[in-house]
Design a protein that fits this description.
little secondary structure, elongated
Length: 120
Amino acid sequence: MPVHGLSEDRGRGPGRRGERPVSARPLRVVGRPVPRVDALEKVTGRARYVTDLTVSGMAHAKVLRSPYAHARVRRVDVTRARVLPGVFAAIAGADLTWCDPYYGPAYRDRPVLAIDVARY
């Protein structure tokens, strides 16, 4: 919108149809405290978040990140992890041949799991 279309434009006068400039209107939210309906639950630790929910048969994921900021990945051996009790799946970047490893918020040189190079 061009400046001359704003009600605060001094060159335009007091505004269309006698409107008051934005600066003269009483503030409704900005600059005033807004009551937080969930504040008591949050500060007392009683608030529930998505991560607090459990569903029958739910699986949990754990990501093992590289201890190195930039390193070549020769191989990731997950065979011992796969046989541990309670393990549903153990996946390495090289296992992602069935899907696009760059899905979601990932850069084309940063797959969701490291394949050839760890860049995290």
